[in-house]
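Preliminary data (for renewal application), nicotinamide-adenine-dinucleotide complex.
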Amino acid sequence: MTSPASAARRTVRVDLGERSYDILIGPGLIASAGAEIGARLKGCRIAVVTDEHVAPLYLEPFLSSLADAGIEAVSQVLPAGEKTKSFEHLMTVCDAVLGARIERGDAVVALGGGVIGDLTGFAAGIVRRGSRFIQVPTSLLAQVDSSVGGKTGINSRHGKNLIGVFHQPDLVLADTGVLDTLSPREFRAGYAEVAKYGLIDKPDFFAWLEKNWRDIFSGGEARIEAIATSCQAKADVVAADERETGLRALLNLGHTFGHALEAATEYDSARLVHGEGVAIGMVLAHQFSARMNLASPDDARRVEAHLKDVGLPVSMDAIPGGLPPVEVLMEAIAQDKKVKSGRLTFILTRGIGQSFVADDVPASEVLSFLKEKHPR
Amino acid sequence: MTSPASAARRTVRVDLGERSYDILIGPGLIASAGAEIGARLKGCRIAVVTDEHVAPLYLEPFLSSLADAGIEAVSQVLPAGEKTKSFEHLMTVCDAVLGARIERGDAVVALGGGVIGDLTGFAAGIVRRGSRFIQVPTSLLAQVDSSVGGKTGINSRHGKNLIGVFHQPDLVLADTGVLDTLSPREFRAGYAEVAKYGLIDKPDFFAWLEKNWRDIFSGGEARIEAIATSCQAKADVVAADERETGLRALLNLGHTFGHALEAATEYDSARLVHGEGVAIGMVLAHQFSARMNLASPDDARRVEAHLKDVGLPVSMDAIPGGLPPVEVLMEAIAQDKKVKSGRLTFILTRGIGQSFVADDVPASEVLSFLKEKHPR
Ligand SMILES: NC(=O)c1ccc[n+]([C@@H]2O[C@H](COP(=O)([O-])OP(=O)(O)OC[C@H]3O[C@@H](n4cnc5c(N)ncnc54)[C@H](O)[C@@H]3O)[C@@H](O)[C@H]2O)c1
Ligand SMILES: NC(=O)c1ccc[n+]([C@@H]2O[C@H](COP(=O)([O-])OP(=O)(O)OC[C@H]3O[C@@H](n4cnc5c(N)ncnc54)[C@H](O)[C@@H]3O)[C@@H](O)[C@H]2O)c1
Ligand SMILES: [Zn+2]
Ligand SMILES: [Zn+2]
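Predicted structure:
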């Protein structure tokens, strides 16, 4: 089978001066990975990191594409799931990369979802104080979000993503065809981040999603279009604020609540995956904004309706297994990295596509809001 | 007892644009740490990391100086020694810092030698993707070398310092008085790095050291002078080449051999400490340069004589416990981070104070040179 017309392929450039890079988006990119990498990073050797779900599906095709282009490679397969973003696995990856004698001019590749991308990017950022890095995101979430922007990291027992570095990739290859093997649940979770870009500052994109989401789920042009629009949105924010000192915080819409829910469910993906936490978090952020008289409750209802249509959870009681008391959620929120000198920083909204950074949100308001929403 | 006149205090500025910082050098700086830090980092909280040798001597004075300045602090004491630069202890420090709720505006402090500085700086560089960092170096080596320049890291089973980040401190406080409790052996080891700056490109400084080394060892003005000159030398190189792409490699004079010897002795400080490896390595680099007809053998003899006067080891047979075969040393040299695409990069010299980067040194020459020098 030949790969679909590369005419459908899109390129988004992340503009970061010397560290600028391309995101290639389209079907068949795993099959042409060797050629794309070989054309850009001459004579490099490669260490591929992937997980046990992705390996049986795409490791062989990826490695043979490299081999066809004359690129030497070694690979490391890790367990799948959020718990893999740990010090233990970071050490495993660093050891594997060093053991393979990957030098500064060579490259480390993340072939997988956001977990593999975050962990591998962190390892690439610290091995020899920074090695070249290529993202080959295979989940929708990784394609539209985690593979773009250079944030890498692992989790700590004190919270998610608290340990890491900024380390930009040299290239991102987003093969939209591989999303067909992603479970519907994971696809939906990634879709939450797509919707997020509309909710941040693209009301027309959100309206387009309300109409076209079924086409995105089934594949083809609409999917490529949605991914490219999302990558462009993230690339714009990253280019304007690489180190997350201001603007970039908007990308955290829904994430403060979302991270607290992930912590409360102990990162157990059987109960909640990242994108699901974000979906609930975005609905909560819109509801909280309405409660603070910043936005109309109709907007919150519209967000809730769309995410529900798609099949995403939209409230805390949708999480199986129950939640700890509200006080525990507040703890997690206060430890979240978006807290500055004690005050709570949240992304709130004035309506669909009108999000903003509110850095003086009273903890007491959040607490009483959560008490209302919390399932008994 | 009042601290000696602060008139003796020197300041060296490391010029790195937005990330510029001061190195304060002189006696009594631990006693005035609270005031110095408080004046620069308003309202910050502090997590101090130190080791079990330094803690009983200086942790209390340091903490009370902070308390006097109204600065809240927590502390973490680790085992002393090179083996502490491990993933395990990195995790301990990250956990302690996060557990103390140190946020981006707060600061992590390394109170100790190069081991504590490298490990703690690395932790500061990855906690919340970068926290503020203060170096309070207490060994001579740390004061003249490791605390300046932002290189941080840990060791891997594949080699020394292979994992880390560049993370510049916000301030360095080098209290020259604390060096009086350093063991003579550790003082000498640090002195090897002082001599290195002369050998790189300061022949007059090397000649001054040949005359004045006894005064440096006994303390007072000559010591402050030697430390300030060393810091200035390192600051100049770092400012010109922060990320070690060229010039900065000169700082590795003696280090390729030195690291191989450290690996060969399994980082067992009973047998060899870093500065001793560097001393032997610098003698070897001068001898090898003479063998390659780049420099006069007289220069190699002069370097050997001075380091020997001071009490440093100057040849491989001075290392107790024997060494592995030459081939094992070559392995370590080839895995060392200064190898580019298979060729060997060494710092060689044309004479005292005339070092240069040679990036095409034939491995075969190094091998036969080592065979000659290697103790049977
Ligand atoms: N760095 C960033 O900027 C950033 C942004 C957002 C999220 N994240 C992180 O991303 C992570 C979540 O990413 P994720 O949702 O991709 O999780 P994931 O990596 O766990 O992938 C989800 C699941 O799908 C499987 N999978 C991936 N691709 C597949 C394919 N093509 N076919 C079949 N199965 C496939 C994986 O094995 C896994 O079981 C979280 O850790 C989150 O913190 C990071
Ligand atoms: N980051 C860099 O640029 C850089 C440069 C050079 C060396 N290094 C690293 O530095 C490390 C060596 O540093 P080091 O020689 O300071 O080792 P160290 O930190 O192990 O200190 C040496 C010994 O002296 C003790 N000590 C420290 N200060 C003391 C004091 N005032 N009184 C009594 N005892 C004291 C320590 O507890 C330790 O036992 C190596 O790991 C090396 O790789 C890093
Ligand atoms: Zn997200
Ligand atoms: Zn050194």
